[in-house]
Amino acid sequence: MMSSSPGPDGLLRCSWCTATPEYLRYHDEEWGFPVVDDIRLFEKLCLESFQSGLSWRTILEKRENFRAAFAGFDFRRMALFGEADVGRLLADAGIVRHRGKIEAVINNARRACEMVDTEGSLAAYFWRFEAPETDEPPVFRATSPESERLSKDLRKRGWKFLGPTTTYAFMQAMGMVNDHSADCVTRQETAAARRALRRPQ
Predict the structure, then answer these.
(1) What is the C-alpha separation between 103 and 106, in angstroms, rounded?
(2) Radius of gyration of the chain measured on its C-alpha atoms
(3) How many CB atoms lie within 10 A of CB 136?
(4) Domain 4-196 maps to which CATH number in 1.10.340.30, 1.25.40.10, 3.40.50.850, 3.30.450.20?
(5) Name one Pfam family in it (predicted).
């Protein structure tokens, strides 16, 4: 079962978020709230790719640098990046300088453009993999059947660096599954947001 800890206001929250003020803000304002904006969805996929093997705190602290370096994660602009851009990014100390990950997100920007052409939007595609609502308390896990199906389908479509653990973290953050602990003060907020959400078609 997902564990809870009291925050600075004494209210219970998911234990992972009480480690730093940055985590707390991210947890209370973003994590688990449903997102249907294509740019935000693509940004999160990219950041989760960069986070692989690192702490999320490292990525969160560099998020504004990533946004500046990757054209605000506008995948249409990123799809035009070439080798000169790869060199520029490898020289940027404000981001994670990993050639494989950089080349993967540029590739994924091109695949995202293709997906919008075929599916209408990234949101319409990704929300097909939403986890069903359940009254069962969330349990700690690294993947889910939905994230495994999503990862497999993305790889089939030519996307890179998006294994089932990465796609599950993406789904948790973007509200496609409500993994706030059962007694977390934010759980009911995210649940209400999910209920009110008009799913993209």
Answers:
(1) 5
(2) 17
(3) 8
(4) 1.10.340.30
(5) Adenine_glyco
73: left (phi over 0), alpha (psi -120 to 50) or beta: left
Are 166 and 49 contacting, i.e. CB atoms less than 8 angstroms apart?
A: yes
57-92 pLDDT per residue, tens: 999 999 999 999 999 999 999 999 999 999 999 999
Has this prediction a pTM greater than 0.85?
Answer: yes
Binding-site residue set for Zn(2+): 14, 27, 180, 184
Binding site residue list: 14, 27, 180, 184
The predicted pLDDT at position 134 comes to 76
Q: How many CB atoms lie within 10 A of CB 132?
A: 6
Q: Is residue 174 classed exposed, middle or buried when 0-12, 13-18 and 19+ CB atoms within 10 A define those classes?
A: buried
C-alpha 128 chain-centroid distance: 16
Chain position carrying tokens 């999320």: 56
**Which sequence spans correspond to the domains of the chain?**
4-196
Length of the chain: 201
Active site residues: 26, 48, 56
CB atoms within 10 A of CB 14: 24
